[in-house]
């Protein structure tokens, strides 16, 4: 395609074809380094970025300018594609168990334990005492038994898998009784009714959305019933006219009728949040004590460990679960088991639970956060002068991860404003930083919450703000 070398303003039609762009020197050089489809993808993305810039009226007026823009976008695209895509970020959103940001950050000793197992060989399935084949389950089971007072435990990849595995093992071909108020959906399209179908079990809903009585369960039990299911509605809260039987009463009913009672707890809380004056989250230990036969919960929610699903309870039921062929499909790897073992070890020591970042962040008093935020603002004002406005405002952090939905933690936010830059643009530039800094926009302002920010990364945030304030007029796209 021939182009005039000067244009009033370039239009979409002035962008060369993808074939023509593939012949540019900047692109052919890359064809020596990478497969053609990969280069093609970068070319397409860069062409799209040029198109978008033209649509936004970027005022490109010559062919050279248009092509040099393409080269710049192509280079950026190339750099992005050749950088590891999964990497660490700074979470300044104040959402502690942010599912999009990998949920629980791990304690230092947990990371060290994972690294030690990752680096070499381990006794994953080797019994060092007897000198023969061992069980991968053994590594966490003793700790779980001790911490929860249960007979047995088994670990799988995540709690969704744990729930599926329990339902399939105990209720395949039979009915499962559950309250209508507990037919929940949690993030990532995990819906109890769908899981039930995949487990081969028939859902037997009882009660109404807001009220279910013990007599509703009693009336629904028949000779096809295999299991009573209780689900902790972890991501929403029912208030007002609502009722469901206590766990103990439900467990007794199950035992009377010879039916196991299984509870999906979602978050596996091992410590009582009321210690920090927060609303109660059910403790795994209390469910076991109440007589529930099996519980399932996540390793990376309130427990504060690696992604895992943990099933704890009666020994004979756990044995049946172990023998289910699906167990082989959902079994965890050595890194998970090592991280979980080390996390549970912290609880077992009992003393330094605040070694766990999740609990430390939940327990952080607002005064401590205010102090850090104030000191950061002081340093930032010194470094940035008046080019950016920083201000402390009161706000709330969240536990997140579908845990404790009604729990708001008072915090102090740092609101950042730039006279020539919208909150959205500021947010984008912080996100484009390396490491990316993720913030919230609240009341049209960009805000950072230091509850979820480690002290050690504050200088990185400051230097990013400095770069943004000095380079504002430069288009960093
Ligand atoms: C989070 C949650 C799950 C799923 O747990 P994952 O570890 O994310 O797989 C299942 N049930 C409930 C009630 C939950 O809150």
List keywords for this structure.
477 residues, binds pyridoxal-5'-phosphate, 17 strands, alpha/beta, 4-stranded antiparallel beta sheet, disordered C terminus, 7-stranded mixed beta sheet
Q: Would you give an account of this structure?
A:
With 477 residues, the chain is of the alpha/beta class. It contains 18 helices and 17 strands. It has helices at residues 18-22, 25-31, 36-55, 63-81, 108-119, 138-148, 159-171, 192-199, 214-220, 247-257, 284-289, 315-323, 326-330, 334-349, 357-363, 366-384, 423-432, 458-470; strands at 90-91, 126-127, 132-133, 152-156, 175-179, 185-186, 190-191, 202-206, 225-231, 261-267, 294-298, 309-313, 389-398, 408-417, 437-438, 440-442, 445-449. The chain has a 7-stranded mixed sheet with strand order 4-12-11-10-9-5-8, sandwiched between helices. It has a 4-stranded antiparallel sheet with strand order 13-14-17-16. Helix 3 (36-55) packs across helix 4 and helix 16 packs parallel to helix 18 (458-470). The chain is globular. The two termini are 27 Å apart. The structure holds pyridoxal-5'-phosphate.
Query: What ligands can be seen in this structure?
Result: pyridoxal-5'-phosphate
**What's the alpha carbon Rg, rounded to whole Å?**
28 Å
The neighbouring-strand order within the major sheet is 4-12-11-10-9-5-8
Round the mean pLDDT to the nearest integer and report it. 92
Q: pLDDT below 50 for ≥5 consecutive residues: which ranges?
A: 473-477
Strand content: 15-25%
Number of strands: 17
Structural class: alpha/beta
Shape: globular
**Helix content estimate:** 40-55%
The DSSP helix count reads 18
**What's the N-to-C terminus distance?**
27 Å
The major beta sheet can be summarized as:
7 strands, mixed
């Amino acid at each position: 395609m021939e182009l005039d070398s000067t244009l009033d303003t370039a239009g979409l039609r002035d962008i060369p074809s993808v074939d023509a762009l593939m012949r540019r020197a900047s692109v052919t050089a890359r064809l020596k380094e990478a497969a053609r489809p990969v280069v093609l993808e970068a070319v397409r993305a860069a062409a799209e970025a040029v198109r978008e810039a033209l649509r936004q009226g970027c005022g490109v007026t010559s062919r050279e300018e248009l092509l040099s823009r393409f080269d710049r976008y192509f280079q950026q695209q190339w750099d992005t594609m050749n950088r590891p895509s999964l990497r660490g970020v700074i979470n300044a959103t104040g959402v502690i168990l942010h599912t999009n940001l990998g949920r629980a950050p791990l304690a230092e000793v947990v990371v060290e334990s994972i690294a030690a197992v990752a680096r070499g060989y381990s006794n994953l399935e080797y019994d060092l005492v007897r000198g023969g084949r061992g069980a991968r389950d053994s590594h966490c089971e003793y700790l779980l038994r001790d911490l929860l007072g249960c007979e047995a435990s088994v670990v799988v990849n995540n709690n969704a898998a744990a729930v599926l595995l329990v339902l399939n093992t105990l209720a395949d071909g039979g009915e499962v009784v559950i309250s209508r108020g507990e037919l929940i959906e949690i993030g990532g399209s995990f819906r109890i009714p769908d899981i039930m179908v995949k487990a081969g079990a028939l859902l037997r809903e009882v009660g109404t959305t807001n009220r279910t009585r013990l007599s509703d369960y009693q009336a629904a039990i028949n000779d096809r019933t295999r299991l009573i299911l209780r689900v902790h509605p972890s991501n929403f809260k029912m208030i007002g006219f609502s009722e469901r039987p206590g766990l103990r009463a439900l467990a007794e009913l199950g035992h009377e009728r010879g039916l196991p009672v299984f509870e999906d707890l979602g978050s596996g809380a091992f410590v009582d949040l009321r210690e920090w004056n927060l609303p109660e989250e059910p403790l795994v230990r209390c469910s076991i004590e109440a007589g529930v036969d099996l519980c399932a919960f996540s390793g990376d929610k309130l427990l504060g460990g690696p992604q895992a699903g943990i099933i704890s309870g009666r020994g004979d039921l756990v044995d049946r679960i172990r023998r289910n062929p699906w167990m082989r499909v959902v079994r965890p790897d050595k890194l998970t088991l090592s991280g979980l073992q080390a996390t549970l070890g912290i609880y077992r020591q009992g003393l330094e639970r605040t070694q766990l970042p999740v609990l430390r962040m939940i327990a952080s008093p607002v005064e401590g956060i205010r102090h850090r935020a104030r000191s950061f603002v002081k340093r930032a004002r010194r470094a940035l002068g008046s080019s950016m406005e920083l201000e402390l405002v009161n706000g709330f952090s969240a536990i997140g991860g579908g845990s404790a939905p009604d729990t708001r933690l008072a915090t102090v936010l740092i609101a950042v404003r730039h006279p020539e830059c919208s909150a959205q643009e500021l947010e984008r530039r912080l996100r484009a930083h390396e490491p990316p800094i993720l913030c919230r926009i609240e009341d049209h302002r960009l805000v950072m919450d230091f509850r979820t920010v480690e002290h050690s990364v504050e200088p990185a945030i400051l230097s990013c703000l400095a770069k943004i304030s000095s380079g504002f007029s430069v288009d960093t796209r």
